[in-house]
Amino acid sequence: MLDLAQRARAASRALASLSTDEKNRCLTAMADVIEGAAPRLVEANALDLETGRSLGLSAAMMDRLALNPARIQSMATSLREVAALPDPVGQVLDQRTRPNGLHLSKVAVPIGVVVIIYESRPNVTSEAASLCFKTGNATILRGGKEALHSNRLVADLLVRAGRDTLGERFPSDAIQVVPTPDRDAIPELLSLTQYIDLCMPRGGEGLIRAVTAASRVPVIKHYKGVCHVYVDAHADLEMAGAIVENAKCQRPSTCNSAETLLVDRAVAAEFLPCLASRLASRNVEFHADPASLPLVQIAVGNRPNVVRIATPEDWETEYNDLVINVAVVEGVEGAIAHIARHGSGHSDAIVTRDEATAARFLHAVDSAAVYWNASTRFTDGFEFGMGAEIGISTDKVGARGPMGLAELCSYKWIARGSGQVRG
Amino acid sequence: MLDLAQRARAASRALASLSTDEKNRCLTAMADVIEGAAPRLVEANALDLETGRSLGLSAAMMDRLALNPARIQSMATSLREVAALPDPVGQVLDQRTRPNGLHLSKVAVPIGVVVIIYESRPNVTSEAASLCFKTGNATILRGGKEALHSNRLVADLLVRAGRDTLGERFPSDAIQVVPTPDRDAIPELLSLTQYIDLCMPRGGEGLIRAVTAASRVPVIKHYKGVCHVYVDAHADLEMAGAIVENAKCQRPSTCNSAETLLVDRAVAAEFLPCLASRLASRNVEFHADPASLPLVQIAVGNRPNVVRIATPEDWETEYNDLVINVAVVEGVEGAIAHIARHGSGHSDAIVTRDEATAARFLHAVDSAAVYWNASTRFTDGFEFGMGAEIGISTDKVGARGPMGLAELCSYKWIARGSGQVRG
Predict the structure, then answer these.
(1) Torsion of CA A261, A262, A268, A274, to 10 degrees
(2) Same domain assignment for residues B191 and B297
(3) Cβ neighbour number for residue A318 with a 10 Å cutoff
(4) CATH number for position A157
């Protein structure tokens, strides 16, 4: 691991010297090489699928592990899109001249060496590596052990494309895959504070907690997404229904989907039966508090497989599925208190026509993204106009919310003087 | 610790609701209360000095522990200065409207709960607490065990001033001191990721490494400051002499002081003897590489207590004292390579008249602050015009370089819509 990390550090210094044009030419070549190697990728992936079967992976996991021509094409397309994005490196974020004449500028620079730890999907290898490469960062990638053949080949192809384009100027260690499935490798890697600048784990809460506990280098992550939609007394209830349905049903497996609906007591009786019918027709299951339970049952009946009383754990569970918690709260302050207690600091929305109530919610809810009259599903680098997304952070240090290219940069202070000394 | 952390979290939510004016009135009142309590502070400090003596603290440590009327006055002055600074909370850092009409703004918000771990000086208690308070953060302070009486009284006085000013609106748990000197308290505290957002250790490298190893919450820190001044072939040698002298001698105990002088081989014979005389007259001791050793000895003689050959460890040692390493390097690339190998990513300077050489150095040296023709001693929140400084970071995630009020903020994304749902 030490050798791997040292080579990544050396590569990161070389990457920092590449021009935007050089990086974009590499990314375009990487797309071509990935496209051209589709048969070899499918072949390597077949070995991984075999491992997956022998490990008894679920059908969903097997699907995430699989590479097919369409997915390989989409990897190539995504590489070309990254080439087309503006390069944040070198951007002047701030500048000033001090009274003593010293000129200071705050300039975006690569973070350096980034470790990405993720689960199955081999397409993450190419996506994460390309975003890091575009921002001049060296990557060390650690996917699921069942995806090792696919991941290594993807990394090899990307590096080969870079070498073909820039020759010696492209550092071969810019993109590395941890070569061993050994579990002890990760704590060892994440203790090397001198060589590793950042770790980004992506996956289930268990993986992320284990990585955070083991790491001595900074970690950016979100543990989970327990997102709320609060429907206020002054909401447009038709709009509220559409937002709740979208936040829950449009893609329930994502972290920005809603897990909990909070309804102001003043409109609960009017809103909930209608909303429950709407969601029930989308096959949503309800975990309701005592006040909302009868209002849901009016609409969907007393069917235990469709509606049941919520347990204390439910309020903090990310279902990733067509299940929604429902609670009646006392106005916006009740919603704020519920979210403070149970939320995950990810994405939370209020639906209301009242500007003051909205302002109170947007101010008091301490989440990475807060919404007024819109679905929580927009918390996403593409939807935010970043052009890409490497992950979503609920941390308060470093990037918060969706992370695009700019969020893969650090900065340095450049001071230009004419002999200034401190008095 | 759990109770302490939960109370800090609750306090942080209340703090986030205070207006700038309310916070400033509290800070002014805090200054008055600290001033008025000078005799009590001296009294509490006397108990700590007694503990210090019984622990056999060095004279330097005892001096750092001591509070006297002048230092108490300076604490009060500093509180008034913090009141006068602009409040970064609520500043709109970025905004955009998406094609679907969703309006996004990126707004500075408090980080939340900040743990500050430091060594003796009780004045840090008031300084750190006031900067965190101004930015709406709750603080949990952990000073040296020998300073516990002073630190608790300072925190009590600050909180009392806040209560006197705002009554119930001021959360009493906004500023807390860890009440026990128990060492196990810190790992426990820093495992509470749900309640603690950031830890900032300040002190020796040993302390900082121990905190980083123990923490599961994000840590911002610098391990040490091994700063370099590189004197290029094209330097104005008179300017170079003044910068090296300032960087080494003006206040050698600080982290932004130079530890190593790198001299381009082309000017070593001309520059070094003269520079060595200059520094020797300031009582500087030299640890020189084989190429520079004779050039230093020309000026200061062969006195082993003034000049000796540098050991491998010397290049990575922060002396905090009137000692300087000297090495001859092959031009700017030699300097860049030396700094990449031995530097601490803190502050490094080049002295040259050649703009292209300067540009190469400023780009390739991966440190929080890089200087062209100026002393490294300027890496400081006040010198950078931040109006304050709570610490200096060499991390690449979160703040880098001096940290003022803006660097004590996170941000959130506020999305305002009119019923947008994701398609």
Answers:
(1) -10
(2) no
(3) 18
(4) 3.40.605.10
Asked whether the beta carbons of B130 and B82 are under 8 A apart, the reply is: yes
Q: What is the CATH number of the domain that holds A254?
A: 3.40.309.10
Whether residues B370 and A401 touch (CB distance < 8 A) is answered with no
- Classify strands A92-97 and A103-110 as parallel, antiparallel or unpaired: antiparallel
Number of domains composing chain A: 2
pLDDT at A272 over 90: yes
Give me the residues of A, 87-126, that contact B with CB < 8 A. 96, 98, 102, 104, 109, 111-112
> Can you read off the two tokens belonging to residue A111?
């973070």
- Chain A CB contacts of B338 under 8 Å are none
Answer yes or no: is B173 within a domain: yes
CA B334 to CA B326: how far, in whole Å?
A: 13
How far away is chain B from the Cα of A151, in angstroms, using its nearest Cα? Answer: 27
The CB density around residue B290, as the number of other CB atoms within 10 Å, is 10
Classify residue A386: in a domain, yes or no. no
Do B52 and B159 sit in the same domain of this protein? yes
Shared domain check, B342 and B278 = yes
In a domain, A301, yes or no: yes
Residues of B in contact with A212 (CB under 8 A): 193, 216
Q: Tell me which residue of A340, A341, A344, A308 sits closest to A326, measured CA to CA.
A: A308
What is chain B's pLDDT, residue by residue, as a tens digit (423 residues)?
A: 999 999 999 999 999 999 999 999 999 999 999 999 999 999 999 999 999 999 999 988 899 899 999 999 999 999 999 999 999 999 999 999 999 999 999 999 999 999 999 987 888 999 999 999 999 999 999 998 899 999 999 999 999 999 999 999 999 999 999 998 888 899 999 999 999 999 999 988 999 999 999 999 999 999 999 999 999 999 999 999 999 999 999 999 999 999 999 999 999 999 999 999 999 999 999 999 999 999 999 999 999 899 999 999 999 999 999 999 999 999 999 999 999 999 999 999 999 999 999 999 999 999 999 999 999 999 999 999 999 999 999 999 999 999 999 999 999 999 999 999 999
Regarding whether A109 and A11 lie in a shared domain, the answer is: yes
8 A C-beta contact, residue A233 and residue A267: yes
Asked if residue A299 lies in contact with residue A323, where contact means CB atoms within 8 angstroms, the answer is no
**pTM score, whole prediction:** 0.94
**Which amino acid is it at B186?**
I
Which tokens in the block code for residue B192?
């509470």
* Burial of B345: CB neighbours in 10 Å, binned 0-12, 13-18, 19+: buried
Q: Are residues A179 and A284 in the same domain?
A: no
How, if at all, do strands A175-177 and A198-201 pair? unpaired
Residue B218: both structure tokens together: 């994000």
Which chain B residue has the Cα nearest residue A395?
B197
Which residues 6+ apart lie within 8 Å of B253 measured at CB?
B320, B321
One domain, residues B187 and B271: no
The H or E element containing residue A313 is none
**Is there a single domain that holds both residue B352 and residue B406?**
no
- Runs of H (alpha helix) within A290-412: 293-300, 331-342, 355-364
Contact in structure between A225 and A202 (CB atoms under 8 Å): no
Q: Locate B365 and state its tokens.
A: 């040296």
Mind telling me how many Å the CA of A60 is from chain B's nearest CA? 24
Nearest to B415 among A197, A212, A378 (CB): A378
Helix (H, G, I), strand (E, B) or coil at B307: strand
The answer to whether the Cβ–Cβ distance between B400 and A422 falls below 8 Å is no
A192 shares its domain with A238: no
Amino acid occupying residue A367: S
Residue A389 lies in a domain: no
A258 is in which domain, residue-wise?
A: 227-378
With 0-12 CB in 10 A as exposed, 13-18 as middle and 19+ as buried, what is A301? Answer: exposed
